[in-house]
Amino acid sequence: MPSSINESLRIYREIFDKSDLFSSNDDRLLVIDNWLNVPNDWTCSGIEGFHRWRMLLKSDIEATEAMLQCTDGDEPLISSNLIAHWTCWMALINPAVSKHPITAVNKYFILPKREGQKGKPKSVKVDIVADAGRSWIRLSNIKLSSILAELAEMDSLITSSDDDSDSHVDQPMPVPSLLKIGHELSAASIKFIIHDQRPDIHLYLTRLSREEVAESDSRIKGQLETLNLYGIQVHFGIPTYDLKVSQKQPRVALKPTTNINLDVSILIAFTSITTHIYNPAEASLKPNNATEHIRAISNQLYQESGVCALFDLIKETCDTETLQFWTTQENKDRTYSILDKIGGATEKLRLESIFEGGNDSFWDGSRYFSNQMGGLPVKIINDSGDDVPTASFDDFVLRRAHKALNSDGNMGSAGKLTPHTLRTVIAGLERGWTTLTSNRQSIKALVQGWHTHVNNNSSLATFWLVEPRSLSEQLLEKSDRKSNK
Q1: Residues 89, 19: contact at Cβ < 8 Å?
Q2: Is the four-CA dihedral 76, 77, 78, 82 of positive or negative sign?
Q3: DSSP labels for 65-113?
Q4: Shortest CA distance to 12 belongs to which of 45, 60, 48?
Q5: What is the pLDDT of residues 157-180, one digit of tens each?
Q6: Under DSSP, is residue 411 helix (H, G, I), strand (E, B) or coil?
């Protein structure tokens, strides 16, 4: 690395400028979101800690620039973080070192508490979390002279202990820094399982070569062998890499699958009078008060001026000639129970025909009668799963849904989902079918952390979110939520 202030500043600035163009992962979660006036943030391009790392880099640039005001630029830069920043940058941009997607830079992982340990738990630093969490990369800029100094200190302590034979004080021997790092990384990785596997741990000794280690104190080689026993892969040096930024190809728009899994909210929306009526203001609803009624009708008219109504949206998005709607027997039963309590006569008739195959009966009196939509009648999913091929979706969300279902809907920090919502989602995921729902909050909670597993070359959506479109639907959904409590 250069030693002059001018050359160091040049490299600092080059890293900072190029890092502004770097992105590890512009993938998206496989979610179609047709909600109105809601941020549709279903991408997973952010790298945790990357902005903070760039700001540290900027601070070092400013400090070096300030140094130039009072020092000759050809003078050596005695102390700086340049080596640390440069090695981190080389590791970040080289896909042979950090496999995409990269999810974090300079991340600290909590170590398991030892028995009897008091105070806050300690943590260990991982410079780069790559391969969607499956790979941890730690960069060590330790020099051979520092390792030899550690060994000399240990020899001195051993000699001192032998000479002071009358001392009764047990003085623990210092742990070599490489073994300390290795032990902490190994211990922390046990708590962060990805697909039933601990992350691969890579330790890059950026300022050491295999040859100089082989020719030096044999105990250094012994430390590296111990690191291998910890499950840590040791690398020497850091390969240089030239970042080439190419124009990204436009992404193919997400599409639903031919078979679409419906939850209760959509079954209610399908049968709701305000989905079919020519003028939503004419709906014979019984809201809690007149103000609520006026506000709901106003909101629906506003929504429909901005985005398509539900059936129009489906017809625009899907191939209705091959489209087929499905739902679970549980959802069918729940919808019948809800409409039995709250639904009007028209909504109950539509519910009957949506399952029984009376196509004209379903569209009778609807503004869509002359322009009907395929996919009906709604078929019931076979619980055995024999009616469908193996799912093709990434299994992270499916595994998370099963885990939450076995934990009575508990999603940890993401909150709690109702068991019937989880069973609905599982039915779609197991079959590789898009699940159509207006339950946005549940889906947001369910896919939390999906970016650490996503493999989304597919253009088929896992979830399709639409907005609750009418007061009658909201009333019916409110009844459904109450029945879950």
Answers
A1: yes
A2: negative
A3: HHHHTTS-TTSB--S-SHHHHHHHHHHHH-TTTSPSPP-EEEEEEEPPP
A4: 60
A5: 877 766 655 554 556 678 899 999
A6: coil
